[in-house]
Amino acid sequence: MAEQKKAKTKMSAAAKREQNWGYLMIAPTIIGLIILNLWPFVQTIYTSFCEHLGFGQYKFVGLQNYIEMFQDPEVWRATWNTIYFCILTVPLGLFLALLVAMLLNAKIKGKGVFRTIFFLPMVCAPAAVTMVWRWIFNADYGILNQILGTKINWVTDPNVVMIACAIVAIWSNIGYDAILLLAGLQNISKSYYEAASIDGASKITQFFHITLPMVSPTLFVVMIMRLMSSIKVYDLIYMMVEDTNPALTSVQSLMYLFYRQSFVAGSRGMGSAIVIWTVLLIGIVTVIQFVGQKKWVNYEV
Amino acid sequence: MKNMQRNAQITKVLTYVVLILGAVIMIFPFVWMILTSFKTQTESMQVNPIVFFPTHWDLNNFVDAVKSLPFVNMYINTALMIFFRVVCAVAFSSMAAYAFAKLRFKGKNILFGIILVQMSLPSQIFIIPQYQMVAKLGNLIPALGANTVFALVFPGIVSAFGTFFLRQTYLGIPNEISEAAYLDGCNQWQTFTKVLFPLTGTSVAALTIFTAVFAYGDLMWPLVVNSDLNMMTLSSGLATLRGQFSTNFPVLMAGSLLAMLPMVVLYMIFQRQFIEGIAHTGGK
Protein backbone atom coordinates (compact mmCIF):
# COMPACT_ATOMS: atom_id res chain seq x y z
CA MET A 1 0.00 0.00 0.00
CA ALA A 2 2.66 2.44 1.05
CA GLU A 3 4.78 1.40 -1.88
CA GLN A 4 1.92 2.01 -4.26
CA LYS A 5 1.24 5.43 -2.84
CA LYS A 6 4.87 6.31 -3.06
CA ALA A 7 4.97 5.37 -6.71
CA LYS A 8 1.85 7.36 -7.46
CA THR A 9 3.06 10.51 -5.82
CA LYS A 10 6.65 10.12 -6.81
CA MET A 11 8.05 13.35 -8.07
CA SER A 12 11.06 14.20 -10.12
CA ALA A 13 13.96 15.61 -8.15
CA ALA A 14 13.36 19.05 -9.66
CA ALA A 15 9.68 19.05 -8.73
CA LYS A 16 10.58 17.96 -5.22
CA ARG A 17 13.06 20.79 -4.92
CA GLU A 18 10.45 23.23 -6.19
CA GLN A 19 7.99 22.01 -3.58
CA ASN A 20 10.53 22.40 -0.79
CA TRP A 21 11.31 25.95 -1.90
CA GLY A 22 7.58 26.63 -1.93
CA TYR A 23 7.14 25.49 1.67
CA LEU A 24 10.23 27.34 2.78
CA MET A 25 9.14 30.60 1.21
CA ILE A 26 5.60 30.58 2.54
CA ALA A 27 6.72 29.37 5.98
CA PRO A 28 7.19 32.76 7.70
CA THR A 29 3.83 34.05 6.50
CA ILE A 30 1.85 30.90 7.16
CA ILE A 31 3.39 30.21 10.57
CA GLY A 32 2.89 33.87 11.46
CA LEU A 33 -0.74 33.80 10.39
CA ILE A 34 -1.43 30.64 12.36
CA ILE A 35 0.09 32.10 15.54
CA LEU A 36 -1.13 35.67 15.15
CA ASN A 37 -4.54 35.16 13.56
CA LEU A 38 -5.84 31.63 13.18
CA TRP A 39 -5.18 30.54 16.75
CA PRO A 40 -6.41 33.86 18.23
CA PHE A 41 -9.57 33.48 16.15
CA VAL A 42 -10.24 30.07 17.73
CA GLN A 43 -9.36 31.48 21.15
CA THR A 44 -11.76 34.40 20.77
CA ILE A 45 -14.59 32.02 19.92
CA TYR A 46 -13.73 29.93 22.98
CA THR A 47 -13.36 33.02 25.19
CA SER A 48 -16.83 34.17 24.20
CA PHE A 49 -18.12 31.12 26.13
CA CYS A 50 -15.99 31.96 29.18
CA GLU A 51 -15.87 34.33 32.08
CA HIS A 52 -12.61 36.22 32.63
CA LEU A 53 -11.45 35.76 36.21
CA GLY A 54 -8.51 38.14 35.83
CA PHE A 55 -4.81 37.51 35.08
CA GLY A 56 -5.66 35.57 31.93
CA GLN A 57 -7.64 32.91 33.84
CA TYR A 58 -10.95 31.78 32.33
CA LYS A 59 -13.93 29.72 33.45
CA PHE A 60 -16.21 28.04 30.90
CA VAL A 61 -19.77 29.36 31.31
CA GLY A 62 -21.49 28.13 28.15
CA LEU A 63 -23.89 30.55 26.52
CA GLN A 64 -24.07 32.91 29.48
CA ASN A 65 -22.24 35.79 27.74
CA TYR A 66 -24.52 35.55 24.73
CA ILE A 67 -27.66 35.45 26.90
CA GLU A 68 -26.46 38.45 28.87
CA MET A 69 -25.41 40.23 25.71
CA PHE A 70 -28.77 39.93 24.02
CA GLN A 71 -30.54 41.04 27.20
CA ASP A 72 -28.34 44.10 27.51
CA PRO A 73 -29.95 47.26 26.07
CA GLU A 74 -26.47 48.81 25.71
CA VAL A 75 -25.52 46.09 23.20
CA TRP A 76 -28.69 46.60 21.17
CA ARG A 77 -28.16 50.33 21.30
CA ALA A 78 -24.57 49.91 20.07
CA THR A 79 -25.81 47.62 17.30
CA TRP A 80 -28.34 50.22 16.22
CA ASN A 81 -25.74 52.99 16.51
CA THR A 82 -23.43 51.04 14.20
CA ILE A 83 -26.19 50.48 11.65
CA TYR A 84 -27.33 54.10 11.95
CA PHE A 85 -23.75 55.25 11.38
CA CYS A 86 -23.66 53.17 8.17
CA ILE A 87 -27.02 54.57 7.01
CA LEU A 88 -25.85 58.13 7.61
CA THR A 89 -22.41 57.81 6.04
CA VAL A 90 -22.40 55.18 3.28
CA PRO A 91 -25.10 56.34 0.80
CA LEU A 92 -24.39 60.06 1.14
CA GLY A 93 -20.64 59.50 1.21
CA LEU A 94 -20.76 57.40 -1.96
CA PHE A 95 -23.00 59.90 -3.70
CA LEU A 96 -20.64 62.77 -2.93
CA ALA A 97 -17.60 60.68 -3.87
CA LEU A 98 -19.19 59.81 -7.21
CA LEU A 99 -19.96 63.49 -7.79
CA VAL A 100 -16.36 64.46 -7.05
CA ALA A 101 -15.08 61.63 -9.26
CA MET A 102 -17.27 62.76 -12.16
CA LEU A 103 -16.14 66.37 -11.79
CA LEU A 104 -12.51 65.25 -11.70
CA ASN A 105 -13.12 63.16 -14.79
CA ALA A 106 -14.14 66.24 -16.79
CA LYS A 107 -11.61 68.16 -18.88
CA ILE A 108 -10.45 70.68 -16.31
CA LYS A 109 -7.26 72.36 -15.26
CA GLY A 110 -5.64 71.67 -11.89
CA LYS A 111 -6.99 68.15 -11.68
CA GLY A 112 -3.89 67.01 -9.78
CA VAL A 113 -4.24 69.77 -7.20
CA PHE A 114 -7.88 68.92 -6.52
CA ARG A 115 -7.05 65.23 -6.28
CA THR A 116 -4.29 65.95 -3.76
CA ILE A 117 -6.59 68.12 -1.64
CA PHE A 118 -9.52 65.70 -1.55
CA PHE A 119 -7.22 62.81 -0.70
CA LEU A 120 -5.40 64.64 2.12
CA PRO A 121 -7.48 63.33 5.10
CA MET A 122 -6.50 59.81 4.10
CA VAL A 123 -2.87 60.31 5.18
CA CYS A 124 -3.76 62.02 8.45
CA ALA A 125 -4.24 59.84 11.51
CA PRO A 126 -7.97 59.65 12.37
CA ALA A 127 -7.06 60.61 15.94
CA ALA A 128 -5.57 63.92 14.80
CA VAL A 129 -8.32 64.65 12.27
CA THR A 130 -11.07 64.04 14.82
CA MET A 131 -9.36 66.30 17.32
CA VAL A 132 -9.53 69.16 14.81
CA TRP A 133 -13.22 68.51 14.15
CA ARG A 134 -13.99 68.48 17.87
CA TRP A 135 -12.67 72.01 18.00
CA ILE A 136 -14.74 73.03 14.98
CA PHE A 137 -17.81 71.45 16.62
CA ASN A 138 -17.19 73.01 20.04
CA ALA A 139 -20.52 74.35 21.29
CA ASP A 140 -19.32 77.61 22.86
CA TYR A 141 -16.29 78.64 20.82
CA GLY A 142 -16.37 76.39 17.77
CA ILE A 143 -16.39 78.05 14.39
CA LEU A 144 -19.25 75.96 12.98
CA ASN A 145 -21.80 77.38 15.43
CA GLN A 146 -20.34 80.83 14.76
CA ILE A 147 -20.83 80.49 11.01
CA LEU A 148 -24.31 78.99 11.32
CA GLY A 149 -25.30 81.37 14.12
CA THR A 150 -26.52 78.40 16.15
CA LYS A 151 -25.79 77.02 19.60
CA ILE A 152 -25.90 73.31 18.84
CA ASN A 153 -24.11 70.96 21.23
CA TRP A 154 -22.62 68.94 18.40
CA VAL A 155 -20.59 66.62 20.61
CA THR A 156 -22.71 66.34 23.77
CA ASP A 157 -26.31 66.37 22.53
CA PRO A 158 -27.41 62.70 22.22
CA ASN A 159 -29.59 63.54 19.22
CA VAL A 160 -26.86 65.35 17.27
CA VAL A 161 -23.60 63.65 18.14
CA MET A 162 -24.01 60.87 15.55
CA ILE A 163 -24.53 63.45 12.81
CA ALA A 164 -21.30 65.15 13.87
CA CYS A 165 -19.47 61.82 13.66
CA ALA A 166 -21.03 61.13 10.27
CA ILE A 167 -19.82 64.48 8.93
CA VAL A 168 -16.25 63.68 9.98
CA ALA A 169 -16.47 60.18 8.47
CA ILE A 170 -17.79 61.41 5.13
CA TRP A 171 -15.26 64.24 5.01
CA SER A 172 -12.43 61.79 5.77
CA ASN A 173 -13.34 59.18 3.16
CA ILE A 174 -14.70 61.16 0.24
CA GLY A 175 -11.32 61.61 -1.48
CA TYR A 176 -10.34 57.98 -1.19
CA ASP A 177 -13.68 56.70 -2.52
CA ALA A 178 -13.60 59.30 -5.29
CA ILE A 179 -10.14 58.17 -6.46
CA LEU A 180 -11.35 54.55 -6.65
CA LEU A 181 -14.50 55.58 -8.54
CA LEU A 182 -12.48 57.81 -10.85
CA ALA A 183 -10.52 54.75 -11.97
CA GLY A 184 -13.82 53.09 -12.85
CA LEU A 185 -15.06 56.17 -14.73
CA GLN A 186 -11.87 56.40 -16.76
CA ASN A 187 -12.52 52.92 -18.12
CA ILE A 188 -15.75 54.04 -19.79
CA SER A 189 -15.12 54.59 -23.49
CA LYS A 190 -15.76 58.15 -24.70
CA SER A 191 -17.52 56.77 -27.78
CA TYR A 192 -20.64 55.92 -25.75
CA TYR A 193 -21.09 59.55 -24.79
CA GLU A 194 -20.40 60.75 -28.31
CA ALA A 195 -23.01 58.40 -29.73
CA ALA A 196 -25.52 59.44 -27.06
CA SER A 197 -24.89 63.14 -27.76
CA ILE A 198 -25.52 62.64 -31.47
CA ASP A 199 -28.79 60.92 -30.58
CA GLY A 200 -29.67 63.98 -28.53
CA ALA A 201 -29.54 62.37 -25.07
CA SER A 202 -29.29 64.91 -22.26
CA LYS A 203 -26.50 64.83 -19.67
CA ILE A 204 -28.92 63.42 -17.09
CA THR A 205 -30.06 60.63 -19.43
CA GLN A 206 -26.41 59.92 -20.18
CA PHE A 207 -25.66 59.66 -16.46
CA PHE A 208 -28.42 57.13 -15.77
CA HIS A 209 -28.01 55.12 -18.96
CA ILE A 210 -24.25 55.15 -19.48
CA THR A 211 -22.27 56.33 -16.46
CA LEU A 212 -24.17 54.61 -13.68
CA PRO A 213 -24.46 51.15 -15.26
CA MET A 214 -20.86 51.25 -16.49
CA VAL A 215 -19.42 52.32 -13.13
CA SER A 216 -21.68 50.03 -11.09
CA PRO A 217 -19.11 47.21 -10.64
CA THR A 218 -16.60 49.70 -9.18
CA LEU A 219 -19.34 51.34 -7.13
CA PHE A 220 -20.26 47.95 -5.73
CA VAL A 221 -16.67 47.20 -4.67
CA VAL A 222 -16.29 50.62 -3.05
CA MET A 223 -19.63 50.23 -1.30
CA ILE A 224 -18.73 46.81 0.16
CA MET A 225 -15.40 48.16 1.35
CA ARG A 226 -16.96 51.27 2.85
CA LEU A 227 -19.72 49.26 4.57
CA MET A 228 -17.22 46.83 6.08
CA SER A 229 -15.06 49.58 7.49
CA SER A 230 -18.10 51.53 8.72
CA ILE A 231 -19.41 48.54 10.68
CA LYS A 232 -15.99 48.36 12.34
CA VAL A 233 -15.91 52.10 13.15
CA TYR A 234 -14.06 52.82 16.36
CA ASP A 235 -11.26 55.41 16.31
CA LEU A 236 -13.32 58.33 15.09
CA ILE A 237 -16.08 57.85 17.68
CA TYR A 238 -13.57 57.09 20.41
CA MET A 239 -11.76 60.37 19.76
CA MET A 240 -14.96 62.37 19.39
CA VAL A 241 -16.79 61.07 22.46
CA GLU A 242 -14.86 60.11 25.60
CA ASP A 243 -16.05 57.76 28.36
CA THR A 244 -17.40 60.59 30.49
CA ASN A 245 -19.51 62.22 27.78
CA PRO A 246 -23.23 61.87 28.66
CA ALA A 247 -23.99 61.27 24.97
CA LEU A 248 -21.78 58.15 24.89
CA THR A 249 -24.58 55.57 24.73
CA SER A 250 -26.21 57.41 21.82
CA VAL A 251 -23.12 57.11 19.65
CA GLN A 252 -21.12 54.16 20.97
CA SER A 253 -20.46 51.68 18.15
CA LEU A 254 -20.07 47.93 18.62
CA MET A 255 -16.28 48.15 18.38
CA TYR A 256 -16.19 50.97 20.92
CA LEU A 257 -18.32 48.85 23.28
CA PHE A 258 -15.99 45.92 22.57
CA TYR A 259 -13.00 48.06 23.54
CA ARG A 260 -14.63 49.28 26.76
CA GLN A 261 -15.84 45.83 27.79
CA SER A 262 -12.56 44.07 27.03
CA PHE A 263 -9.94 46.58 28.06
CA VAL A 264 -11.61 49.07 30.40
CA ALA A 265 -14.06 46.82 32.27
CA GLY A 266 -11.86 43.74 31.78
CA SER A 267 -14.75 41.41 30.88
CA ARG A 268 -13.02 39.73 27.97
CA GLY A 269 -15.64 36.98 27.68
CA MET A 270 -18.33 39.56 27.00
CA GLY A 271 -15.94 41.50 24.74
CA SER A 272 -15.34 38.35 22.69
CA ALA A 273 -19.07 37.71 22.42
CA ILE A 274 -19.56 41.26 21.12
CA VAL A 275 -16.87 40.88 18.49
CA ILE A 276 -18.39 37.56 17.34
CA TRP A 277 -21.77 39.28 17.09
CA THR A 278 -20.15 41.99 14.96
CA VAL A 279 -18.63 39.39 12.64
CA LEU A 280 -22.06 37.79 12.24
CA LEU A 281 -23.50 41.20 11.42
CA ILE A 282 -20.80 41.76 8.80
CA GLY A 283 -21.62 38.35 7.34
CA ILE A 284 -25.34 39.16 7.12
CA VAL A 285 -24.67 42.53 5.48
CA THR A 286 -22.29 40.92 2.98
CA VAL A 287 -24.84 38.28 1.99
CA ILE A 288 -27.54 40.94 1.55
CA GLN A 289 -25.15 42.97 -0.62
CA PHE A 290 -24.24 40.08 -2.86
CA VAL A 291 -27.87 39.07 -3.30
CA GLY A 292 -28.92 42.68 -3.90
CA GLN A 293 -26.17 43.41 -6.42
CA LYS A 294 -27.93 41.36 -9.11
CA LYS A 295 -30.58 44.06 -9.23
CA TRP A 296 -28.27 46.96 -9.98
CA VAL A 297 -24.71 45.93 -10.78
CA ASN A 298 -24.02 45.54 -14.46
CA TYR A 299 -21.27 43.11 -15.44
CA GLU A 300 -22.19 42.85 -19.10
CA VAL A 301 -19.56 45.00 -20.67
CA MET B 1 -24.49 75.10 -32.21
CA LYS B 2 -23.89 78.38 -30.35
CA ASN B 3 -26.32 77.20 -27.70
CA MET B 4 -24.41 73.99 -27.18
CA GLN B 5 -21.15 75.88 -26.79
CA ARG B 6 -22.73 78.11 -24.19
CA ASN B 7 -24.08 75.09 -22.35
CA ALA B 8 -20.65 73.51 -22.33
CA GLN B 9 -19.22 76.69 -20.92
CA ILE B 10 -21.81 76.84 -18.14
CA THR B 11 -21.10 73.21 -17.27
CA LYS B 12 -17.41 73.99 -17.07
CA VAL B 13 -17.90 76.99 -14.78
CA LEU B 14 -20.23 74.94 -12.56
CA THR B 15 -17.66 72.14 -12.39
CA TYR B 16 -15.01 74.58 -11.17
CA VAL B 17 -17.37 76.21 -8.68
CA VAL B 18 -18.37 72.90 -7.09
CA LEU B 19 -14.79 71.58 -7.06
CA ILE B 20 -13.40 74.76 -5.51
CA LEU B 21 -16.16 74.79 -2.91
CA GLY B 22 -15.40 71.15 -2.11
CA ALA B 23 -11.68 71.85 -1.91
CA VAL B 24 -12.30 74.72 0.53
CA ILE B 25 -14.35 72.42 2.78
CA MET B 26 -11.58 69.83 2.63
CA ILE B 27 -8.81 72.31 3.40
CA PHE B 28 -10.57 74.46 5.97
CA PRO B 29 -10.15 72.17 9.01
CA PHE B 30 -6.39 72.08 8.37
CA VAL B 31 -6.17 75.86 8.03
CA TRP B 32 -8.23 76.32 11.17
CA MET B 33 -6.00 73.88 13.05
CA ILE B 34 -2.86 75.79 12.03
CA LEU B 35 -4.36 79.19 12.88
CA THR B 36 -5.64 77.99 16.26
CA SER B 37 -2.33 76.37 17.15
CA PHE B 38 -0.70 79.83 17.21
CA LYS B 39 -3.42 81.58 19.20
CA THR B 40 -3.53 82.16 22.94
CA GLN B 41 -6.30 80.35 24.77
CA THR B 42 -8.12 83.66 25.30
CA GLU B 43 -7.97 84.47 21.60
CA SER B 44 -9.28 81.05 20.70
CA MET B 45 -12.26 81.53 23.00
CA GLN B 46 -13.31 84.92 21.69
CA VAL B 47 -16.62 85.01 19.87
CA ASN B 48 -18.75 87.71 18.23
CA PRO B 49 -16.67 88.37 16.31
CA ILE B 50 -14.40 85.36 16.20
CA VAL B 51 -10.64 86.04 16.02
CA PHE B 52 -9.43 84.67 12.72
CA PHE B 53 -5.69 85.33 12.82
CA PRO B 54 -3.50 85.13 15.93
CA THR B 55 -2.01 88.45 17.01
CA HIS B 56 1.39 86.94 17.77
CA TRP B 57 2.78 83.99 15.87
CA ASP B 58 4.69 82.27 18.63
CA LEU B 59 5.32 78.64 19.44
CA ASN B 60 4.06 78.61 23.05
CA ASN B 61 1.36 76.04 22.37
CA PHE B 62 3.82 73.74 20.68
CA VAL B 63 6.13 74.07 23.67
CA ASP B 64 3.23 73.20 25.98
CA ALA B 65 2.27 70.19 23.86
CA VAL B 66 5.85 68.90 23.78
CA LYS B 67 6.22 69.47 27.53
CA SER B 68 3.13 67.45 28.41
CA LEU B 69 3.68 64.62 25.93
CA PRO B 70 6.98 62.95 25.02
CA PHE B 71 6.67 63.82 21.32
CA VAL B 72 10.23 62.77 20.51
CA ASN B 73 9.51 59.28 21.86
CA MET B 74 6.18 59.19 20.04
CA TYR B 75 7.87 60.07 16.75
CA ILE B 76 10.53 57.41 17.29
CA ASN B 77 8.01 54.75 18.37
CA THR B 78 5.76 55.47 15.41
CA ALA B 79 8.67 55.49 12.98
CA LEU B 80 10.08 52.21 14.33
CA MET B 81 6.66 50.55 14.30
CA ILE B 82 6.12 51.61 10.68
CA PHE B 83 9.65 50.64 9.66
CA PHE B 84 9.49 47.11 11.07
CA ARG B 85 5.94 46.50 9.89
CA VAL B 86 6.85 47.60 6.36
CA VAL B 87 10.07 45.56 6.22
CA CYS B 88 8.32 42.44 7.54
CA ALA B 89 5.27 42.86 5.32
CA VAL B 90 7.36 43.41 2.19
CA ALA B 91 9.93 40.67 2.84
CA PHE B 92 7.66 37.87 4.06
CA SER B 93 4.75 38.71 1.75
CA SER B 94 7.00 38.90 -1.32
CA MET B 95 8.46 35.47 -0.57
CA ALA B 96 5.07 33.91 0.02
CA ALA B 97 3.50 35.69 -2.95
CA TYR B 98 6.23 34.40 -5.27
CA ALA B 99 5.72 30.85 -4.00
CA PHE B 100 1.94 31.01 -4.30
CA ALA B 101 2.09 32.47 -7.80
CA LYS B 102 4.97 30.58 -9.38
CA LEU B 103 5.74 27.36 -7.54
CA ARG B 104 3.93 24.03 -7.42
CA PHE B 105 3.56 22.39 -4.02
CA LYS B 106 1.01 20.21 -2.31
CA GLY B 107 -1.71 21.85 -0.25
CA LYS B 108 -1.27 25.22 -1.94
CA ASN B 109 -4.98 26.00 -2.10
CA ILE B 110 -5.66 25.12 1.53
CA LEU B 111 -2.68 27.18 2.67
CA PHE B 112 -3.82 30.09 0.54
CA GLY B 113 -7.23 29.69 2.20
CA ILE B 114 -5.63 30.73 5.52
CA ILE B 115 -4.76 34.04 3.90
CA LEU B 116 -8.31 34.57 2.65
CA VAL B 117 -9.76 33.70 6.08
CA GLN B 118 -7.52 36.25 7.79
CA MET B 119 -8.48 38.94 5.26
CA SER B 120 -12.20 38.39 5.71
CA LEU B 121 -12.13 38.79 9.51
CA PRO B 122 -11.99 42.15 11.30
CA SER B 123 -8.70 42.70 13.13
CA GLN B 124 -10.52 43.23 16.44
CA ILE B 125 -11.36 39.54 16.61
CA PHE B 126 -7.66 38.81 17.16
CA ILE B 127 -6.90 41.58 19.63
CA ILE B 128 -7.68 39.98 23.01
CA PRO B 129 -5.61 36.81 22.38
CA GLN B 130 -2.83 38.87 20.75
CA TYR B 131 -2.72 41.08 23.81
CA GLN B 132 -2.54 38.03 26.08
CA MET B 133 0.31 36.62 24.00
CA VAL B 134 2.27 39.84 24.34
CA ALA B 135 1.62 39.87 28.08
CA LYS B 136 2.84 36.26 28.40
CA LEU B 137 5.91 36.92 26.24
CA GLY B 138 6.68 39.88 28.47
CA ASN B 139 6.74 37.66 31.54
CA LEU B 140 9.49 35.58 29.92
CA ILE B 141 11.37 38.31 28.06
CA PRO B 142 10.50 41.87 29.14
CA ALA B 143 11.81 43.33 25.85
CA LEU B 144 9.01 41.51 23.99
CA GLY B 145 6.18 42.37 26.37
CA ALA B 146 3.72 45.24 26.65
CA ASN B 147 5.11 48.78 26.45
CA THR B 148 7.80 47.90 23.91
CA VAL B 149 8.32 48.65 20.23
CA PHE B 150 8.02 44.92 19.59
CA ALA B 151 4.49 44.98 21.00
CA LEU B 152 3.56 47.74 18.55
CA VAL B 153 4.91 45.73 15.60
CA PHE B 154 3.52 42.38 16.78
CA PRO B 155 0.18 42.06 14.88
CA GLY B 156 1.85 43.34 11.71
CA ILE B 157 4.78 40.91 11.55
CA VAL B 158 3.11 39.08 8.68
CA SER B 159 0.58 40.46 6.24
CA ALA B 160 -2.13 38.35 4.67
CA PHE B 161 -3.25 41.31 2.63
CA GLY B 162 0.30 41.96 1.42
CA THR B 163 0.64 38.34 0.30
CA PHE B 164 -2.68 38.44 -1.50
CA PHE B 165 -1.88 41.75 -3.16
CA LEU B 166 1.66 40.85 -4.27
CA ARG B 167 0.52 37.45 -5.52
CA GLN B 168 -1.58 39.29 -8.11
CA THR B 169 1.57 41.11 -9.22
CA TYR B 170 3.60 37.90 -9.52
CA LEU B 171 0.77 36.23 -11.43
CA GLY B 172 1.00 39.10 -13.92
CA ILE B 173 4.67 38.39 -14.65
CA PRO B 174 4.97 35.92 -17.55
CA ASN B 175 6.19 32.45 -16.58
CA GLU B 176 8.76 32.61 -19.39
CA ILE B 177 10.82 35.04 -17.33
CA SER B 178 11.12 32.79 -14.30
CA GLU B 179 11.64 29.73 -16.52
CA ALA B 180 14.43 31.46 -18.42
CA ALA B 181 16.13 32.37 -15.14
CA TYR B 182 15.77 28.77 -14.01
CA LEU B 183 17.34 27.48 -17.23
CA ASP B 184 20.21 29.92 -16.74
CA GLY B 185 21.02 28.00 -13.59
CA CYS B 186 19.30 30.12 -10.94
CA ASN B 187 17.70 28.21 -8.09
CA GLN B 188 14.25 29.31 -6.89
CA TRP B 189 15.67 31.70 -4.32
CA GLN B 190 17.92 33.38 -6.89
CA THR B 191 15.13 33.54 -9.44
CA PHE B 192 13.03 35.28 -6.83
CA THR B 193 15.58 37.72 -5.41
CA LYS B 194 17.55 38.54 -8.56
CA VAL B 195 14.98 38.34 -11.34
CA LEU B 196 11.35 38.62 -10.22
CA PHE B 197 11.46 40.70 -7.04
CA PRO B 198 13.15 43.65 -8.82
CA LEU B 199 10.25 43.66 -11.29
CA THR B 200 7.66 44.28 -8.55
CA GLY B 201 8.87 47.76 -7.54
CA THR B 202 5.57 49.58 -8.12
CA SER B 203 3.58 47.06 -6.10
CA VAL B 204 6.14 46.99 -3.31
CA ALA B 205 5.97 50.79 -3.14
CA ALA B 206 2.16 50.62 -3.01
CA LEU B 207 2.25 48.03 -0.23
CA THR B 208 4.83 50.10 1.67
CA ILE B 209 2.67 53.21 1.57
CA PHE B 210 -0.50 51.31 2.41
CA THR B 211 1.13 49.54 5.38
CA ALA B 212 2.71 52.76 6.63
CA VAL B 213 -0.45 54.87 6.43
CA PHE B 214 -2.61 52.29 8.18
CA ALA B 215 -0.05 51.52 10.91
CA TYR B 216 0.26 55.27 11.49
CA GLY B 217 -3.49 55.73 11.88
CA ASP B 218 -4.09 52.61 13.97
CA LEU B 219 -5.46 53.49 17.39
CA MET B 220 -6.94 50.52 19.23
CA TRP B 221 -3.89 48.24 19.31
CA PRO B 222 -1.38 50.90 20.48
CA LEU B 223 -3.85 52.03 23.14
CA VAL B 224 -4.35 48.48 24.39
CA VAL B 225 -0.77 47.29 24.37
CA ASN B 226 1.33 50.32 25.31
CA SER B 227 -0.09 52.26 28.24
CA ASP B 228 3.24 53.84 29.19
CA LEU B 229 3.30 57.39 27.81
CA ASN B 230 6.91 57.01 26.67
CA MET B 231 5.98 54.02 24.52
CA MET B 232 2.93 55.50 22.81
CA THR B 233 2.53 56.23 19.13
CA LEU B 234 1.45 59.62 17.78
CA SER B 235 -2.16 58.42 17.53
CA SER B 236 -2.47 56.93 21.00
CA GLY B 237 -0.51 59.81 22.51
CA LEU B 238 -2.97 62.31 21.05
CA ALA B 239 -5.82 60.40 22.69
CA THR B 240 -4.06 61.00 26.01
CA LEU B 241 -3.49 64.68 25.27
CA ARG B 242 -7.23 65.01 24.69
CA GLY B 243 -7.88 64.15 28.33
CA GLN B 244 -5.17 66.47 29.69
CA PHE B 245 -6.10 69.62 27.82
CA SER B 246 -9.80 69.09 27.30
CA THR B 247 -10.48 72.83 27.00
CA ASN B 248 -7.16 74.23 25.85
CA PHE B 249 -7.76 73.88 22.15
CA PRO B 250 -4.68 75.80 20.96
CA VAL B 251 -2.48 73.19 22.65
CA LEU B 252 -4.62 70.36 21.29
CA MET B 253 -4.33 71.82 17.78
CA ALA B 254 -0.56 72.20 18.18
CA GLY B 255 -0.39 68.54 19.21
CA SER B 256 -2.54 67.43 16.29
CA LEU B 257 -0.41 69.44 13.89
CA LEU B 258 2.77 67.88 15.28
CA ALA B 259 1.23 64.41 14.91
CA MET B 260 0.10 65.01 11.33
CA LEU B 261 3.18 66.80 10.07
CA PRO B 262 5.56 63.95 9.16
CA MET B 263 3.02 62.01 7.10
CA VAL B 264 1.66 65.12 5.39
CA VAL B 265 5.18 66.21 4.42
CA LEU B 266 5.86 62.75 2.96
CA TYR B 267 2.53 62.93 1.16
CA MET B 268 3.37 66.30 -0.35
CA ILE B 269 6.66 64.94 -1.68
CA PHE B 270 5.30 61.63 -2.98
CA GLN B 271 1.68 62.58 -3.81
CA ARG B 272 1.41 60.51 -6.93
CA GLN B 273 2.86 57.40 -5.29
CA PHE B 274 0.61 57.86 -2.25
CA ILE B 275 -2.61 58.31 -4.19
CA GLU B 276 -1.93 55.65 -6.79
CA GLY B 277 -0.46 53.29 -4.21
CA ILE B 278 -3.41 53.47 -1.85
CA ALA B 279 -5.99 53.47 -4.63
CA HIS B 280 -4.22 50.53 -6.25
CA THR B 281 -4.21 48.46 -3.06
CA GLY B 282 -7.71 49.47 -2.01
CA GLY B 283 -9.36 48.76 -5.32
CA LYS B 284 -8.35 45.15 -5.30
Write a structural description.
The complex is a heterodimer of chains A (301) and B (284). Chain A is mainly alpha-helical. Chain A folds into two domains: 1-33; 74-296, MetI-like (MetI-like fold, Orthogonal Bundle). Helices cover 74% and strands 3% of the residues of chain A. Chain A has 14 helices and two strands. Chain A has a two-stranded antiparallel sheet with strand order 1-2. In chain A, helix 8 (161-186) packs across helix 10 (203-231). The radius of gyration of chain A is 25 Å and the shape is globular. Chain B has two domains: 2-61; 69-244, MetI-like fold, CATH 1.10.3720.10. With 284 residues, chain B is mainly α. Chain B is 75% helix and 0% strand. Chain B has 15 helices and no strands. The mean pLDDT of chain B is 91. The interface between A and B is large, with 92 and 96 residues.
Task: Provide the residue-averaged pLDDT of chain B.
Answer: 91
Q: Give the tally of β-strands of chain A.
A: 2
Main sheet: strands, sense, barrel of chain B: none
- CATH topology descriptor of the largest domain in chain A: MetI-like fold
Proportion of beta-strand residues of chain B: under 5%
- Please bin the fraction of helical residues of chain A: over 70%
**Unreliable residue runs of chain B:** none
- Radius of gyration of chain A from CA coordinates: 25 Å
Oligomer classification: heterodimer
Global structural class of chain A? mainly alpha
Query: C-alpha Rg of chain B, in Å?
Result: 24 Å
Q: Number of helix segments of chain A?
A: 14
CATH superfamily of the largest domain in chain A: MetI-like
- Highest-level CATH class of the largest domain in chain A: Mainly Alpha
Determine the number of helices of chain B (DSSP H or I, runs of at least 4 residues).
15
Indicate the structural class of chain B: mainly alpha
CATH topology name of the largest domain in chain B, in short, is: MetI-like fold
Biggest beta-sheet profile of chain A: 2 strands, antiparallel
Taking strands numbered 1, 2, ... along the chain, how are they ordered across the largest sheet of chain A?
A: 1-2
Topology of chain B as a string of helices (H) and strands (E): HHHHHHHHHHHHHHH
CATH architecture of the largest domain in chain A: Orthogonal Bundle
